[in-house]
Amino acid sequence: MARDENGAVLIEAAFVLPIVIILLLGAVSYGMWFMAAHSLQQAANEGARAVLAGIDAEDRAAIVQDVVRDGVLSAGTVEAEHVSISTTQEGNSYTVAVSYDTTDTLLLSSSIIPLPPGPITRKARVHLSSM
């Protein structure tokens, strides 16, 4: 009876399989988090570049809203209704900040492995030419 090894692989798999599944889900969750962060950064960059076409502050804010919404929607990695956009101008520097609330995203809010807390926020800054 001591030399009988039938079923040993099954018992070993029962020990290892939960760990492998947790690591796999963690990798998928982090991949989604990084992909969302990258999409937000790209949208902020595009919004900041588009600001240069604006004539006044109101026109620039409208351009940023349109360009960032289009960029976020075209990426398909974040839900546009959970994205907030803010703009600030300090002197000749114009900053576009894009934030994504991850609390309603299933894989990002209920990950087995802890992800960075809070919303994902990314910024881009452009220097406006002095006229």
Automatic annotation (TrEMBL):
Query: What's the short name of a Pfam family annotated to this entry?
Result: TadE
Would I find Transmembrane among this entry's keywords? Answer: yes
- Which residue windows are transmembrane per the record? 7-33
Domain TadE-like, by residue range, is 7-49
Keyword annotations for this protein, in alphabetical order, are: Membrane, Transmembrane, Transmembrane helix
Q: Which domain of life is it from?
A: Bacteria
- Keyword match Membrane: yes
Under InterPro entries, the record lists: TadE-like_dom (IPR012495)
Name of this chain's protein: Pilus assembly protein TadE
